[in-house]
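Ticket #4471: structure output looks truncated?

Reporter: J.K.
Steps to reproduce: submitted the chain below (262 residues) through the standard prediction queue, then opened the result file.
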Amino acid sequence: MKLLVDRELNAIYSAVITGVAPPQSWTDAKSAVQPASIDLQIGTISIPTEDRSQSPIKINKGYSLPPGQTAVVTTRERLKMPPDLAAIGFPPSHVSVQGILMTNPGHIDPGYDGPMHLTVINMGRDSFELRIGDSIVTVLFFKLDAGVTADYSTRNPGQLPDPDVNKLSRDFVNVEKRAKDIARNAILRAGIWGAIGAAVLTMATQGLPYWLGGLEDVKRNQAVLSEQVGTLREKIKSLEDKQTPATSRDRQTNVSNKKPTP
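Returned output as attached by the reporter:
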């Protein structure tokens, strides 16, 4: 088995790839023929619908794929693989570094005849622009030592069906649903706290006059109590004076009336 290089890929391009004209200068940087691979372009874009009973949305111009969402890309090129040629596809680096996950480029069997269908998922932070004619998959071609006994078309006669795009989830990581849930919860929490705040404010407004009235009552009660305590102290002093021992009073009287001895 041998990996084909650029000059070999350019020689077989027209026989293996249809739907796009071969590159005029296959050694240029932007040529579809690369040192050991061929870049295939976006042909059509299919977007899954939320309702599986509806037909997928077909786009023939371009589409901005939001974060977390899924699309199925069909290549503009159609591959017509001979029995002694196999291939492997994968996303090019300039696509994958932007957070694009491609789930099914995979292996292309000898005898396969048709375009490539690629499921792409935007795992990045920003929307990814899917533009018709942009390269979307890089394909390596391998020359087999001998042709296979029964190639893909022999094993799978008849026209290949289009992929069932609506089997896929349009919102792969539920970004839209999670965003809606977050917004709904935020509104709910805001409503609850708003109601609590309004209730507290109402209670405070209604209770303030009673609280102030209670404070005035406390002040009045304190003044009355202070007056009563003062009166009680005077009564206690009067009683203490009345209960002074008689012997003390008599002793003071005798001393004052006693005459000196001649």
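Triage note (M.O.): checked the attachment and the full token line is present. The domain at 2-173 is CATH 2.70.40.10 (Deoxyuridine 5'-Triphosphate Nucleotidohydrolase; Chain A).
Status: closed, working as intended.
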